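Annotated sample (chain length 151).
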Amino acid sequence: MSQHLASIHWSRDGRPFDYNGYSRDHEWRFDGGQRVRASASLDYLGSAESIDPEEALVAALSSCHMLTLLAIAAKKGWTIDSYEDDAVGTMGKNEAGRLAVTQVVLRPRITFAEGKAPDAAGLTHLHEQAHIHCFIANSVKTAVTVEPRDA
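Output written by the structure step:
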């Protein structure tokens, strides 16, 4: 099995520490040296210039679905020229009445190379298998729906 590391860094920077005063801005640092500016969502006094955790969850689900699908397609001999997704996450109350990202809808558009594409049933099965084998989808309670769109 593998481990995946992330470090989070935040500082008050002399600002007042009350609900409306403290900064939500912080930095995510990853073991490969990447740094990402992060914050709370705008609804919770975050910065528009930064990624919020809810957006990151949606992106992680979308990215995982894509990477899993690409691997399966490559093993089947199907050639994908491009893949795009306009994923949307929805906040709501979960079964315990707590706020959560309760649903993520993936809307992938895939362009296959001519003569290297599955038929419609094969494409549906490809998405089903990608969802079943996606590590992130298997790690969350959020309902994840795939609504493929024509390229």
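Annotation: The mean pLDDT is 95.
Annotation: The chain has two domains: 6-44, 53-146.
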